[in-house]
Amino acid sequence: MQSSWTNWTNTFLLSIALLGSCLSVLAAATDVSYDSRAIIINGERRVIFSGAIHYPRSTPEMWPDLIQKAKEGGIDAIETYIFWNHHEPQRGKYHFSGNLNFVKFFKLVQKAGLHVVLRIGPYVCAEWNYGGFPVWLHNLPGVQLRTDNQVYKDEMQRFTTKIVNLCKEANLFAPQGGPIIFAQIENEYGNIMEPYGAAGKSYIQWCATMAESLNISVPWIMCQQSDAPQTMINTCNGFYCDKFTPNNPKSPKMWTENWTGWFKNWGGKDPYRTAEDVAYAVARFFQTGGVFQNYYMYHGGTNFGRSAGGPFIATSYDYNAPLDEYGNLNQPKWGHLKQLHAAIKSGQKVLTSSSPSTTQIGNGVDLTTYVNNPVGDKFCFLSNNNTTEDAHVDLKQDGKYFVPAWSVSILAGCNKEIYNTAKVNTQTSVIVKKSVGSNNESAKFQWAWLSEPMWDVLTGKGKFRETKLLEQKEATGDASDYLWYLTTVEINDTTTWTNAILRVNTTGHVLHAYVNQNFTGSQWTADGDHRFIFEKPITLKSGTNFISLLSATNYGSFFDLSPAGIVGGPVQLIGKGNVTKDLSSNPWSYKTGLGGERARLYKVKQSPMLGRGKWAFKGLPSGKPMMWYRTSFNAPSGTDPVVVDLQGMGKGQAWVNGRSIGRYWPSFLAGKDGCNTSCDYRGEYSSDKCAMNCGNPTQRWYHIPRSYLGNGKHTNTLTLFEEIGGDPSQISFQTLSIGFVCGSVYEGKTLELSCQGGQTISEIHFASFGDPQGNCGSFKKGSCEAVNSLSTVQKACVGKTTCSFNATEATFGSVNCGHKYSKRLLVHARCL
Ligand code: GAL
Questions:
Q1: What's the confidence (pLDDT) of residue 25?
Q2: What is the 3-state secondary structure (H, E, C) of 240-280?
Q3: How many angstroms separate the CA atoms of 812 and 823, rounded?
């Protein structure tokens, strides 16, 4: 029996411990509030730059570097969605480890001294499979998604509460001393709520009440929700948000998604949004009273596994973001925005304590002044919104300014230009791919191969039966991209049926057909439309004929409303004289997934034996559909990012050491038209403007995160499932590094050049201070030049990892260009 003294001592010690932990929490607690002009963090009035990094689109090993680069880029907060379908792939079974460990991700963000913006959704869109919803949710009896439906609301509340509780338990909310300063519920519901009518309105009210009831003590936001119930702050998403005003005059003007580029579809080109235009949009936002701005994406990353949304979202989610898919600085975007953040931050005091007052100067030019009264400090934005005409603005005693078309100048004290969104003073980096090993390395790979085991499905044997054509996600529960639809047809009248047509009406997205074990053909959805009709000539024989259809799909945002697979059909046979047999209500047998998926052929330790098949090593087949391939390779030395070049392959999925690096489809080329050689940053951006990579594979290179690789000779295994036929002998591994850097600065500015990853500047190809012209890689001298241009830059840079100097006559010697406005310096250097 314990003595009362021991009890008392224990209670006392426990109280001290609790008090201690309370004190430590209190000591670190961060208070977050806001008014119309500022986000107020521990009493400090702030403007906030935030950047989206979705934790599952990179690896935990990459997180610290990405976060650090965001911090160096002048980012104050990292924003992310939470991805429900990955955390709860089966109802009640949760996953929070590896790159799903968002608690660890948030702690790393905090360790770097940054805040977190937590967008729970739990509907997120995000080009993510099914918009983040688990497919089991769709299949719950009586459920209707994103509306006033009790089944759905119960699940949404349960999951949202789970996430909030995990954050609370880890002390992640700001008042607990954690990094989270805002949380979001729902996502852009306002854009689609109209058809939901009254139920939509009551649903959004419920979302607000439910969110509030979770007591997180930081403000909640809703994006694109102009009727957001108070106390939700409604925020803006788009390429530009300067014209946005929150629905409550007491709310800060917040921009949750500034799209830094765009995502890529299979068959699509590479989106490209200029640094000048992103900077213009941001500067316009703060000119017009903006307080919080988030880049969507700051780092886009990779859609590993089957995470890409449907139907045709590519595996790379690079997004043309300031950090590229692999985490390299995307220059000049990263650096140009970094300078913009510093320029705006220098006016933070004035910006957050006064309201803008704008004078229209004419021809699209506006001067916006912020004055911090009674102190009288000033901060100005001088914008030229004209899309073609540059402006020369004379502000009398406050100076004369050259404001290029579609640009904003930031004027410290309203009389000194510290930044202009169109004058880029940051290096451009050209990333190059280096083959690993000798050029013939790919020829040296030993390939093993195995046909997808299909005998069961080609002879009509599935796992379950129905007398109708099922909807794909209802049939598979999203356990695989693939669903076999199998039936038989008896033919007596060979005159009518020997040469027939198989016609399949499908809602998408890819269909492969086999008749009597013979491959008949493949077809897929045209971009933008999920439905298509497959029609191919077939030969039928007297007696039993096997029809085996493989449908492949993944899910987009509104797949609760639009079906996938051959649901309902019809599936028809058209015989001589247009006689039609409808097979839609035949007995259909079904099998979810591939035999190779079930046998886990992608697992490294998996035995090469499989049913009727066996890995073969001789006579590597090429151009054959439904093949598994495997090879081993060395991890490239160093730390540069690694990619596999899948040029020559058709369509399928790839794994490295048993981990999926995503779907691949290099045979899908981007359209030939719509890429211009030059890109004018001026005028409103849309996702096809300035697109690149016309006529080439949408995605040829696939990211293999370093952490997926082991060291040592041939210790790594690449496994491919090839769906439509490809040639693995062309495959090679490459590393990425900066090959060249180009610098462009106007007179008076400092040029900094840097090669990443420990490389040095080995050569200066071009350097001219005067009026040189051209784009990176094709610079040309102008009519005037300081004679010492090249030698000065050579002396300052060659042999160094970074160098910097001022673009002034003091550095380069005098030069008379006879021009009214600034001279500039262009440099093209090589990194080795
Ligand atoms: C928004 C959506 C994001 C993302 C973006 C496009 O409408 O909220 O999740 O899908 O579009 O990249």
A1: 42
A2: CCCCCCCCCCCCCEEEEEEECCCCCECCCCECCCCHHHHHH
A3: 12
For residue 376, how far is the Cα from the chain centroid? 43
Q: Is 227 exposed, middle or buried (0-12, 13-18, 19+ CB in 10 A)?
A: middle
Q: Which atom of ligand 1 is nearest to the CA of 557?
A: 10
Beta strands in 700-801 (DSSP E): 701-704, 716-722, 732-746, 750-754, 761-770
The two tokens of residue 578 are 């247009």
pLDDT at 1: 36
How far is the C-alpha of 299 from the C-alpha of 317, rounded, in Å? Answer: 9
- Residue tagged 């509306």 (tokens): 147
Residues with CB under 6 A from ligand 1: 124-127, 187-188, 237, 257, 263
- Distance separating alpha carbons of residues 651 and 507, to the nearest angstrom: 20
CA pair distance 752, 745, nearest whole angstrom: 9
- Length in residues, the chain: 832
Q: DSSP assignment of 469-512, as one string? A: PPPHHHHHTTS-SEEEEEEEEEE--HHHHSEEEEEEEESSSEEE
Is 597 designated active site? no
Ligand 1 atom 5: the closest Cα is on which residue?
126
Instruction: Single out the residue of 817, 736, 806, 718 nearest to residue 770, CA to CA.
Output: 817
Question: 3-state DSSP: the chain helix, strand, coil percent, rounded to 5?
Answer: 20, 35, 45
Q: What domains appear along the chain, each with residue ranges and CATH number? A: 31-325 (3.20.20.80), 333-421 (no CATH), 431-452+598-736 (2.60.120), 457-592 (2.60.120.260), 747-831 (2.60.120.740)
* 19 phi/psi in degrees, rounded to 5: -60, -45
Contact 453, 613 (CB under 8 A): yes
Tokens 């002390």 — which residue? 171
Q: What is the pLDDT of residue 555?
A: 77
Cβ atoms 512, 519 nearer than 8 A: yes
Which among 149, 786, 783, 267 has a CA at the least distance from the CA of 524? 267
Which residues have CB under 8 Å from 718's CB, separation 6+?
Answer: 630, 631, 632, 633, 644, 654, 655, 656, 731
| Nearest C-alpha neighbor of 181 from the set 291, 282, 96 | 291
**Residue 188 appears among annotated catalytic residues:** yes
Q: Could you give the CA distance from residue 82 to residue 186 in angstroms, rounded to a whole number?
A: 11
Rounded distance from Cα 399 to ligand 1 centre (Å): 42
Q: What is the pLDDT of residue 7?
A: 45
From residue 454, how far is each of 200, 553, 630 by CA, in Å?
Answer: 46, 19, 19
482 Cα: distance to centroid of ligand 1 (angstroms)? 26
Query: What is the reported pLDDT for 8?
Result: 40
Is the separation of the CB atoms in 776 and 430 below 8 Å? yes
Asked if residues 220 and 237 have their Cβ atoms less than 8 Å apart, the reply is: no
Dihedral angle, C-alpha 409, 412, 416, 422, nearest 10 °: -20
Q: pLDDT under 50 in the chain at which residues?
A: 1-27, 611-612
